[in-house]
Design brief:
Blueprint (H helix, E strand, L loop, with lengths): L4 H9 L6 H11 L3 H8 L16 H8 L6 H23 L1
Amino acid sequence: MGISHATVSRWLSGKDRPHFRSCRKLSEYSNVPLDKILSLVGYLPGVAEKEPAEWPEFREYALKKYPTELDEDLITMIEDLIERRRGRRYESKDT
């Protein structure tokens, strides 16, 4: 890539950070999107991941933990509330 070991060492130790041109080289070499690299080195605010995080299924948990206390309607209502909360969480990260 044309970047010296000493330069990479300064990046890794936090004494320096890659210049924009170096970030572009790193992106091309590693197939990591340029905006993600620029975010990692501090030129851009954090870049949200494209895929949402894995969430456990509430229905499975509820049926195991509360087999007689929660009926189908209550489980469905709670699932809906969870989905609404998740939607708000992702919306607030986009703004």
